[in-house]
Amino acid sequence: MADLDLEQLHDAMIVTADGHELGPVGQIFLDEVTDAPVYVTVPVGLLGSRSTFVPLQGAQLADGTVTVPFDRVMIKQAPLLDPDGRLDGDQTAEINTHYGLLVPE
């Protein structure tokens, strides 16, 4: 998501590739080198009782909606990680592996 307006991202709703609206963007995680947004959290589970990470690679932002290239099942089955404000390398690798994204070496 190049040239992304963070304000628009803060107020956006997450929609899956299969058309399901999951809820609002929770936290936004930035690349430590480029400051580009790379992950967001989104509420999942019963009444949004927990949050999970969703990569922004391949996502589209338009009209207050972030459409991610993953289906609802994949997002709900993502690893449960504590969104404490920072992801370490192992957590990033776990997220990327789950979503089938290339992990930089």
CATH topology (fold) name: Photosynthetic Reaction Center, Chain H, domain 2
Tally of separate domains:
1
Q: Going across the biggest sheet, name each strand in turn.
A: 2-1-7-6
Main β-sheet description: 4 strands, mixed
The helix/strand class is: alpha+beta
CATH class: Alpha Beta
What percent of residues are in strands? 25-35%
Number of helices: 3
Query: H/E element string?
Result: HEEEEEEEHH
- Unreliable segments of 5+ consecutive residues: none
Give the SSE map.
Layout: H1 6-10, E1 13-15, E2 21-24, E3 28-30, E4 37-44, E5 50-55, E6 60-62, E7 65-67, H2 72-76, H3 89-98
Parallel strand pairs: 1-7
Antiparallel strand pairs: 1-2, 3-4, 4-5, 6-7
Model description:
- With 105 residues, the chain is of the alpha+beta class.
- It has a single domain, classed as Photosynthetic Reaction Center, subunit H, domain 2 (Photosynthetic Reaction Center, Chain H, domain 2), CATH 3.90.50.
- Helices cover 19% and strands 29% of the residues.
- It is built from 3 helices and 7 strands, in the order αβββββββαα.
- Strands 2-1-7-6 form a 4-stranded mixed β-sheet.
- A hairpin with a 5-residue loop joins strand 4 and strand 5.
- The longest helix has 10 residues.
